[in-house]
């Protein structure tokens, strides 16, 4: 009996009788009866009750990792002599109306806190069905939206199986790195409706929004957060400039035949153009060029292929210097000087970049603002995007957005806890009813 009470984590004096056996499939079966106690009627509160009968309840219990465990609990059914109400005695194994033990519920919720866990893997560890694991999660995990902080990062990630929208929109606290909320889409009208439901006083506290160069985000912030400044993540600006430089390279490369040295250099060493700094390193023998050569020398040969390519590379290099070494007090002056250089270019791809930079000038300058010694950036958002993708990938995709949102909020926020005292109805998708089955 000592082993059984330790296994079930209940006091030995509360157990009247217990025994264990093994089923044909290897499951551990524990038969247990608790000590009789006086219970008040849940309807009238009277203690004038007597035992009506005994009923055996089968409870799934994850006390062991090596095999499944089933508690056969001989429960007393009481009847109130005052009002006639019948009720079962309380027990330490499970809440009223459930067939899964409280320990199993806690184990399921603790395992689902890890982003690489799936409902199937958690169900397998606790000897329940994946559907039951989903039901437990939906009953106890409902994460509410967090209060808007002073600095919000906004970004989208491709992570949903839905014909209506393929992207989910994430709102992140820049300072605490906590996920504020997750929205089912990034469309402009949906974001406007969502933010309109937020109290105006809460929206007025937001000072900065950090985003990529997605025009609807900027429009939404201007409409719903008139006091907030917008900062563009520098990574996305540099990426656009690199993409334009790469487009120039591809256009020039296509002007050469595939067996030429120029084509070979542009095709195989294109990464040198996109490097922030090309270090000298050791010279290596190149069979195609028939000489010993290092990376800076290779870069010089590539830039010598076309004046347009060299000009585009110098503009990229100039922006990287501005992005790395400028600060907020000098950003506008340095930006204008850089734009005067870009404005002289007649390369089609660079003309597009000039328009982009001019369009987002204010937001780019705001990105140099420092808060607690940190520059405004969406860098932390990229790591959060990877967690969302991991949850989606390990779960083989989600079609129920409410469950997907709760799972991401539950995994990504360390202080997000299940509400065990107030279980709610499971989250169900709206869809067509299943038709009759015909063999």
Please tell me about this protein's structure:
The protein folds into four domains: 98 residues, no CATH class; 35 residues; 121 residues, Ribonuclease H-like superfamily/Ribonuclease H (Nucleotidyltransferase, domain 5); 133 residues. The mean pLDDT is 87. The protein is α+β, with helices and mostly antiparallel strands. The longest helix is centred in the middle third of the chain and has 20 residues. 41% of the residues lie in helices and 18% in strands. It comes from Longicatena caecimuris. Pfam families: DDE_Tnp_ISL3. InterPro entries: Transpos_ISL3, Transposase_DDE.
Distance between the termini: 51 Å
Indicate the mean pLDDT.
87
- From the spread of the alpha carbons, the general shape counts as elongated
Q: Structural class, from helix and strand content?
A: alpha+beta
> What is the overall number of helices?
17
Beta strand % = 15-25%
The residue fraction in helices comes out at 40-55%
Q: How many strands, what sense, and barrel or not for the largest sheet?
A: 5 strands, mixed
Which residue ranges are poorly predicted, with pLDDT under 50 across at least 5 consecutive positions?
none
Instruction: State the total count of DSSP E strands.
Output: 14
Total number of domains:
4
CA gyration radius, whole angstroms? 32 Å
Secondary structure layout plus pairing:
Layout: H1 2-8, E1 15-22, E2 28-34, E3 49-61, E4 69-80, E5 86-88, H2 102-111, H3 119-126, H4 130-140, E6 151-158, E7 167-173, E8 179-183, H5 188-196, H6 200-204, E9 208-211, H7 215-224, E10 229-232, H8 234-253, H9 261-268, H10 271-274, E11 284-286, E12 291-293, H11 295-303, H12 307-325, H13 331-343, H14 348-359, H15 361-366, E13 370-371, E14 374-375, H16 379-394, H17 401-412
Parallel strand pairs: 2-4, 6-9, 9-10
Antiparallel strand pairs: 1-2, 3-4, 4-5, 6-7, 7-8, 11-12, 13-14
Helix pairs in contact: 3-4, 5-7, 8-12, 8-14, 12-13, 16-17
């Amino acid at each position: 009996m000592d082993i059984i009470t330790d296994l079930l984590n209940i006091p030995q004096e509360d157990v009247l009788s217990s025994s264990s056996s093994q089923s044909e499939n290897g499951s551990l079966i524990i038969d247990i009866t608790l000590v009789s106690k006086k219970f008040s009627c849940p309807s009238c509160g009277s203690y004038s009750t007597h035992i009506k009968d005994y009923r055996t309840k089968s409870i799934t219990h994850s006390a062991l990792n090596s095999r499944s465990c089933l508690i056969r609990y001989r429960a007393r059914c009481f009847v109130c002599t005052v009002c006639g109400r019948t009720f079962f005695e309380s027990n330490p194994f499970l809440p009223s109306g459930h067939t899964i033990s409280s320990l199993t519920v806690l184990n399921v919720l603790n395992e689902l806190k890890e982003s690489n866990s799936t409902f199937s893997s958690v169900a397998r560890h606790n000897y329940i069905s994946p559907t039951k694991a989903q039901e437990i999660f939906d009953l106890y995990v409902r994460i509410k939206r967090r209060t808007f902080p002073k600095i919000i990062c906004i970004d989208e990630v491709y992570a949903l199986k839905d014909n209506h929208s393929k992207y989910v929109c994430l709102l992140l606290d820049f300072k605490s790195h906590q996920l504020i909320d997750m929205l089912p889409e990034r469309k402009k009208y949906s974001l406007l409706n969502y933010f309109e439901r937020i109290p105006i006083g809460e929206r007025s506290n937001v000072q900065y929004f950090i985003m990529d160069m997605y025009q609807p985000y900027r429009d939404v912030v201007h409409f719903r957060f008139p006091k907030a400044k917008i900062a563009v993540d520098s990574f996305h600006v540099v990426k656009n400039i690199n993409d334009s430089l790469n487009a120039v390279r591809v256009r020039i490369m296509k002007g050469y035949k595939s067996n030429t040295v120029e084509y070979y250099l542009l095709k195989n060493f294109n990464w040198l153009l996109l490097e922030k700094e090309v270090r000298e390193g050791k010279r290596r023998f190149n069979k195609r060029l028939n000489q010993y050569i290092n990376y800076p020398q290779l870069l010089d040969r590539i830039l010598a292929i076309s004046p347009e390519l060299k000009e585009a590379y110098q503009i990229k290099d100039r922006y990287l210097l501005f992005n790395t070494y400028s600060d907020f007090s000098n950003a506008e002056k340095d930006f204008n000087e850089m734009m005067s250089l870009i404005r002289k270019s007649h390369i089609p791809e660079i003309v597009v970049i000039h328009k982009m930079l001019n369009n987002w000038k204010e937001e780019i300058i705001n990105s140099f603002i420092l808060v607690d010694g940190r520059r405004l950036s969406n860098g932390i958002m990229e790591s959060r995007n990877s967690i969302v993708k991991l949850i989606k990938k390990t779960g083989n995709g989600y079609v129920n957005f409410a469950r997907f949102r709760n799972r991401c909020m539950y995994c990504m926020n360390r202080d997000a806890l299940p509400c065990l005292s107030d279980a709610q109805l499971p989250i169900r998708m709206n869809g067509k009813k299943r038709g009759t089955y015909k063999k």
